[in-house]
Structure formats: structure tokens, C-alpha cells
Design a protein that fits this description.
single chain, about 800 residues, mainly beta, Immunoglobulin-like, outer membrane lipoprotein receptor (LolB), chain A, 19-stranded mixed beta sheet, 14-stranded mixed beta sheet, 10 helices, DUF5686, Carboxypeptidase-like regulatory domain-containing protein, CarboxyPept-like_regulatory
Length: about 800
């Protein structure tokens, strides 16, 4: 053989090898459908596995599936409870379509279940399934998986994105209006678990229809995925016993509906529902194998008792399980929700997730886990079509494909100035970064400024979501003054964990506004309609600069300098629509002068966070947490040329913790101590309320700004029973009313130092001995309103008991 021929053969061989490597390393799409052999009907959510691997997927609602495989020979297995599995061999060297799995229903002879007198055979099956779950938990130390999630939003009308990156959800039409797909969210992620409770998820890629911002897509991550091999399943803020939880036999009623099979393995189809229909829980069917007592499938709904207020028409959960290295793991998670709020807003939500490529009991170092439970990679939103072509996904249905096209075309239409505006919006969006005040925010009234016109210009998320700025202008027709309030901030760092701030102002300020929980709209309406301006005001002008940032994941530090000059304000208007003969109370004067102050502080926050691609957002996920905050403020005549000399210390602690079932408790402790002459407007006001209204974590029997001091300690403790207490009492009529109960206890000590007393402009009431009050709130699950009942335990006078209304509407 000549050297030339040998060279030609070597070259040809090398070319074939390279081509072979390219074929077998390239990812191809294998599409197909799973159907019933006899009827030809689609089998929704069937399980498709690649033999000898942990790769797999599940069919969609139409029985369609898609696998992404490298070149090579494979055996694909489709399975479905009640059918024999079907195996198809494929040689993958290009994209394949039209693959059909035809599953035959099982026709093996299954013995009838023998029911002995006084014995429910389902009980023993569930008991063994619980023991199998416990054995699984004992043997499962860690695992890794990949997940693809698709969220589908259905509404009666198309959802529009707004310039600020949020969305507008229109109120629905009649109950007969058909829901349509109006939003799609998709994500590809990797999840990691290590005993006892370490969890982390990394979102590798995400995409969504054009009417949704990427930040919303974080919600499709694995933290939403429930695993029915867990003892408790959390839904709507409530831990519900799972069908094979430790106490399920004492909570649920079970009976065998029928026996089925998967291949030649007998499977029990068992009905489950709470023993007491008024107890929150799951209703539906679960599938458990006969010989191994493994849970293979759940098809459940939330009962009415778990749906406080009846907002959701249906909440349906579907989940399948399969074996990975001998361990049963979830292969999918399907959530179907429909809601109808008072017949006005109708919507639906679907979450379809497939989990694949498991690595069970793999070695994962504990140091891998940190405070970030979900991290979105910086390029997750930049993945192009080539990435998604090689990634395992759930194929879009015809309806979803049409929705993508329709939404994209709608979003491409130029929007008018008022297209996204609704009456209660406080801003009008000019584009995604700029907005101005909406009509509802262009007017306010109080007895100092009178009728006032307001206008604001807002810059949001400019320069890669690092820069925000506001400019508020106002003119009061009674005091004949122009006011300006400018602020801006800029974020530094990969996750924008450092913020630099600047503000300049010449404005009217609410006296003790840090203790005021009411909104501007509520205050204006109260003043105009009832001639009850419950606030006091003063003028202030100056500037401030600040810097704050994350020092450690649990520690944030801050420092600021402020220069301001305060002046008293006086009544300039007596206008009101009604009560013409009634007069407004006189506005309180303040300590006039200049305050130059340096403030240094820190926050400690042990909560985990989500890194959403731009920011680190803290999340409690309904679990126990404590927040701590400390600040020191120095106002000095010599060093800072201030008119007031004082050193102030402030401490704040807020603890939230879960108790039994859905009950929660919140404890807030605030303390301040000052040395020196603190001006009246900088004293601390114990949070009180106006006569007939109230807010959570405030003193219900105290008036707004009734107790002041520069040496104050307050405790607010609230225990939210939700409807659990009435369920425990088991009074049938009351249980069905979904009455929500919260009990509270508040205590306060307040005093004022001698130097601060010397410069007081108004009398001050203090509590030199601790003040105590108790009470409770009654609400209903569907209504955003509760009634508060509060009693003074000491310092009793003519106002020892108070009934008031509490609602989030008062914050508008």
C-alpha cells in the first residue's frame, strides 16, 4: 500500500471519528406521544424514562413529550398506572418526531380485597407505607436533580406589563367568560439537598412571555415543589398532614377504591379525606404498591376547610414517583389552581414541573450551602434558542404556542399614556424606567397646607437596575408655600448589596411619622369628611447623604449625615365638606433650629435569601426568624455645629415564629435611650391609634402620639390563631364561618430626660411605671377587615376599653 494511500485512509478514518464524536456529543430532540393502545386516547402525564440512566421526562396534558438526547442508541420506556409499560428502541443521530408509545391496559387477574368484619384493609396498607417512608428518610442523605418548570397563567383578559416592571391584572368579566392563557413562565434549574434541611437551587436559565418581568419567574423554582413523601405539606401558609405522614391515620379516613397494576405489579388505589370534613387537608386518591408499599402517585385537591375565605375554586395536585438507584423520588409535580374573588376577578394557574437526572446520596459538602436558597445565574435571562433546544423541557401545547405569539404581538404594540392606568394606581408609567404621579396622588389636604397640588417624577431601575430617583413637588394654597423633596440612590456590587443615597428637601413633615401607620389618602378623607386631622406637621429643609451595605450575609451596616432646619407650622385652613361649626385642633409647635447629626447602625438578619439575578431578597418562607437592628445618633454643638446636643441609642427586635398548624406569633421590642437635649420632634412616640381605627403591633387603647419620651421601651406581642382555635373547639357552626382570631399583649415604659424637658415646646405624658393592655381581633377569611377589642390593665381612666376597626385599606 503506497504512502499516499495510507495517508488518504488515515485522513478518512480521522474524519469518520470526528464526525462520530460530533454526532454522539450533539443533543437531538426526540418527540412523541403516549396513547392508550385500544382507544387511541392520549395519556396525560405519563412517565418516560431512558433505560439504564436517570434521564427522563413526563408527557404533557395532551400526552406529548420531548426528550433531549445525545447521539446514540437508547431504549425508551413509557409507563402509566393501569397499563403495561411500552419499550421503544431508537437510534438517535438526528431529530426524531412522531414516536408513539401504545400502552395496553393491564388485564392481569387481581384478587379481590378481602374485608374482615370490623377491619379496614386500607389502614394496614397506609401503616406499611408510613414505615416505608420512614425507612426512605433514614437511607436518604442527599440528592441532586435537574428540573424544568413551566408556569401557565390563565385570565379572562390579557395581562399587560407596566413600565415599572410589574404587571396589571385586569378584573375579570362574567363567570361564563372562558379563561385563556395570558402568561407563560419557564425555567431550567438544578437542585441540591443534604440532611437535615440544607437546600439550594440554582436557576440556570429562564424565559417568559413578554408581559412578565424576569423577577416573577423566580416563583417557578423548586421551592414551590411539594414532595408527598414529606410528613407535612405546606399550602397557603398552613402545614397540612400528608397522606402518609406520621399522624395521617389519626387525621384522614382511607378506603380502597379499587386495585390496579403497573406492568405485573399490583397497585392499590386508595381514597383519602379528612375524618372531619371541617378539618383542613387533602381529598382524592393515592396509589401504593402491594408488595413494597411505595407511594407511586397522588391525585388530590385541597378541601374547603384548607381554603380560607373560599378564594380558590379548586387546588388540584398531581405527582408521580419512580425509582432512582433503588430510592423512590418524585418525577414531576403538577399544580392546577382556579380562583374567583367575589365573582369579580377570575384566574387560573398551572405549574408543570419535571424532575430528572437524579444523583441519590451523592457527596455534597455542607459548605456548598449558604444563605442563598435560590440563585439565578447572571446569564440566566440571556440564554438563546440553542440552549433551550438542548435542554429537557415540556413541549408547548398548541394553545401555549398561540398564546406566546399573541402576547408577543400585543406587547409590541406601542402603548398610550393611560393604557396601563387603573384608578388606584399612584403612578402613571411613561416607559419602563420613568413614571409620574397619577391623579389619585396629585392632591392632598390638611389644616396647615389646605388644598395642595402634588406632582412627582420617578426614575426606576435605570443603569442596569442600579439607579432610582424621585422628585416630589407640592404647593399648598393655604400656607402659600412651594415644597420640594428630592432623593436618589445608586446600588453597587454584583447583587447590589451596597447603596449610596442622597436627598435634599424643603417640605412639610408629619410629626412623629415613624409611629404613624395611616396613609395619605386615608388622612385626607378623614380631614375633609369628618374634620378630623389627627396629625400634626412642621416644616423642614436640608439634605442628607448615606451609605449602607452588606458586610456579611447576615450583617448590614449603615452610616449617614443629615443637615436640617426645622420650623413650626400653624393652622391655615378651617375647610371641610361637613361640620362647618367644628374647629380643628391647633397644630403643635416644635423646637425650631438646626440639627446636624451623624447616624451609625447595623442590622442582623438570619433569614435565607433569593439571588434573583439582580438583588438579594430575604425570604422567611413562613418559618421562624428574628431581625435585630441597632442605631446610634450623635448631634453635637461643637463638632457638628448643631443647635442641639444629644446622643441617642435605638434598638429594635422583631421575631416571627410558627406554632401549631397555621398559627403564628410576632413579638416586637423597641427601645431608645438618649443623653442630652433631644428636640420635641425627635422624641419617640409610642405607636397609638385614632379613636375608631387601629393597626397591628400598636397600642389599641392609646391615642396617636399620646405617650412621648427619649427613654422608651415597648413590647408588642401578637398571636394569630387564624381559625385553628375554633376548629379545636369543634363547634360546628363557628368552624364553618372561618372566623380568624388574634390575641395581643402590649407593654410600654416611657420617660424623658431632664435636658430634653428644658426645651420642650409642648406638655408630654409619660409612663414611669410600665403600662399594660390586652385584647383580641376578630376577622373573617374573605374580608380585609377585622374588629379589635382592647383593654387597659392599669393607668385606668375614662377610656379603659376600646373597639376599633383594622384594615390594610387604612394604609392607602
Amino acid at each position: 500500500m503506497s504512502s499516499r494511500t495510507k495517508y488518504t485512509m488515515k485522513k478518512l478514518l480521522l474524519t469518520l471519528i470526528i464526525a462520530s464524536i460530533q454526532i454522539y456529543s450533539q443533543s437531538f430532540s426526540v418527540k412523541g406521544k403516549v396513547i392508550d393502545f385500544h382507544s387511541g386516547s392520549s395519556l396525560s402525564f405519563a412517565n418516560i424514562r431512558v433505560e439504564g440512566t436517570t434521564l427522563g421526562t413526563a408527557s404533557n396534558a395532551n400526552g406529548e413529550f420531548e426528550l433531549k438526547l445525545n447521539g446514540g442508541n437508547y431504549k425508551l420506556i413509557a409507563s402509566f398506572i393501569g397499563f403495561f409499560s411500552d419499550t421503544v428502541s431508537v437510534n438517535v443521530n438526528s431529530d426524531l418526531t412522531g414516536l408513539i408509545f401504545r400502552l395496553k391496559s393491564t388485564e392481569i387477574n387481581l384478587p379481590e380485597v378481602v374485608v374482615k368484619p370490623g377491619e379496614n384493609p386500607a389502614i394496614e396498607i397506609i401503616r406499611k407505607a408510613i414505615e416505608k417512608r420512614k425507612q426512605r428518610e433514614k437511607n436518604l442523605f442527599s440528592y441532586e436533580f435537574e428540573a424544568f418548570s413551566k408556569g401557565i397563567i390563565r385570565t379572562t383578559e390579557d395581562i399587560n406589563s407596566t413600565g415599572s416592571g410589574s404587571i396589571n391584572l385586569s378584573i375579570g368579566q362574567s363567570d361564563t367568560t372562558k379563561l385563556k392563557v395570558t402568561g407563560i413562565l419557564e425555567s431550567h434549574s438544578k437542585g441540591y439537598f443534604l440532611k437535615p434541611d440544607n437546600y439550594k437551587e440554582i436557576i440556570l436559565a429562564r424565559k417568559q412571555s413578554a408581559n412578565f418581568p424576569p423577577s416573577v419567574n423566580t416563583l417557578t423554582g423548586g421551592r414551590l415543589i411539594q414532595n408527598f413523601y414529606s410528613s407535612d405539606i405546606n399550602f397557603l401558609g398552613r402545614d397540612l398532614p400528608g397522606p402518609i405522614s406520621d399522624n395521617s391515620l389519626n387525621y384522614y379516613y382511607f378506603y380502597i377504591e379499587k386495585t390496579s397494576a403497573i406492568n405485573n405489579q399490583k397497585v392499590f388505589q386508595i381514597h383519602v379525606e379528612p375524618d372531619n370534613p371541617s378539618d383542613p387537608g387533602f381529598v382524592g386518591k393515592i396509589f401504593i404498591t402491594d408488595s413494597t408499599f411505595d407511594l407511586l402517585k397522588v391525585d388530590l385537591i385541597l378541601n374547603r376547610a384548607a381554603n380560607i375565605g373560599g378564594i380558590f375554586d379548586t387546588v388540584n395536585i398531581l405527582q408521580h414517583f419512580d425509582y432512582y438507584d433503588g430510592t423512590v423520588m418524585p418525577v414531576d409535580y403538577r399544580l392546577f389552581v382556579t380562583a374567583n374573588f367575589l365573582g369579580l376577578a377570575r384566574l387560573g394557574f398551572e405549574l408543570n414541573t419535571i424532575l430528572f437526572n437524579y444523583k441519590v446520596n451523592s457527596k455534597i459538602e455542607e459548605s456548598f450551602f449558604d444563605k442563598a436558597v435560590i440563585t439565578v445565574l447572571s446569564d440566566a435571562d440571556k440564554k438563546d434558542s440553542t440552549y433551550w433546544l438542548s435542554t429537557q423541557t415540556i413541549p408547548n401545547t398548541e394553545e401555549e404556542e398561540e398564546a406566546y405569539k399573541r402576547i408577543d404581538s400585543l406587547e409590541s404594540i406601542p402603548k398610550g399614556f393611560l393604557d396601563d392606568y387603573s384608578f388606584f394606581d399612584s403612578r402613571l408609567n411613561l416607559n419602563k424606567n420613568f413614571s409620574v404621579s397619577a391623579p389619585i396622588a396629585m392632591y392632598h389636604f390638611n389644616r396647615v397646607e389646605g388644598h395642595s397640588l402634588d406632582f412627582g417624577l420617578f426614575v426606576n431601575d435605570e443603569f442596569d437596575r442600579r439607579f432610582n430617583s424621585t422628585l416630589n413637588l407640592s404647593y399648598g394654597f393655604a400656607d402659600k408655600k412651594f415644597k420640594q423633596d428630592f432623593s436618589s440612590n445608586y446600588f453597587l456590587g454584583e447583587y447590589r448589596t451596597v447603596k449610596l443615597g442622597l436627598s435634599a428637601f424643603n417640605k412639610t413633615k408629619i410629626l412623629f411619622e415613624e409611629s404613624d401607620n395611616y396613609g395619605e389618602l386615608f388622612s385626607t378623607l378623614s380631614t375633609l369628611l369628618y374634620k378630623d386631622d389627627f396629625r400634626d406637621y412642621y416644616y423642614t429643609n436640608g439634605f442628607s447623604i448615606s451609605a449602607e451595605g452588606e458586610i456579611f450575609p447576615i450583617l448590614k451596616g449603615r452610616i449617614s449625615f443629615s443637615n436640617r432646619t426645622d420650623k413650626s407650622a400653624f393652622n391655615n385652613s378651617d375647610f371641610s365638606f361637613f361640620y362647618k361649626d367644628k374647629s380643628y385642633k391647633q397644630n403643635l409647635p416644635v423646637c425650631e433650629g438646626k440639627t446636624n447629626a451623624v447616624k451609625v447602625g447595623f442590622d442582623i438578619d438570619f433569614r435565607s435569601y433569593i439571588e434573583d439575578g439582580f438583588f438579594r431578597r430575604r425570604t422567611s418562607l413562613g418559618r421562624t426568624y428574628t431581625l435585630l437592628s441597632m442605631d446610634v445618633t450623635l448631634s453635637d454643638k461643637n463638632f457638628l455645629s448643631s443647635d442641639f446636643d444629644y446622643l441617642k441609642y435605638e434598638f429594635l427586635s422583631r421575631t416571627f415564629f410558627r406554632s401549631f398548624n397555621s398559627t403564628t406569633a410576632t413579638v416586637k421590642i423597641y427601645g431608645t435611650y438618649s443623653n442630652g437635649s433631644v428636640p420635641y420632634q425627635d422624641l419617640y412616640a409610642v405607636p397609638g391609634n385614632i379613636s375608631t381605627f387601629s393597626s397591628p403591633l400598636t397600642f389599641r387603647t392609646l391615642e396617636l402620639n399620646q405617650i412621648l419620651g427619649d427613654r422608651v421601651l415597648t413590647l408588642n406581642a401578637e398571636y394569630n390563631f387564624r381559625d385553628e382555635l375554633f376548629r379545636l373547639l369543634n363547634i360546628p357552626v363557628i368552624k364553618k364561618l372561618e372566623i380568624l382570631l388574634t390575641v395581643f399583649f402590649n407593654a410600654a415604659y416611657g420617660d424623658i430626660g431632664s435636658k430634653s424637658k428644658e426645651i420642650l415646646t409642648n406638655p408630654v405624658q409619660t409612663f414611669k411605671h410600665p403600662f399594660y393592655e390586652i385584647g383580641f381581633s376578630i376577622g373573617q377569611g374573605l374580608l380585609p377587615l377585622s374588629v379589635d377589642f382592647g383593654w387597659k390593665l392599669n393607668y385606668r381612666n375614662g377610656n379603659n376599653f376600646r373597639i376599633s376597626l383594622s384594615s390594610v385599606l387604612f394604609n392607602l
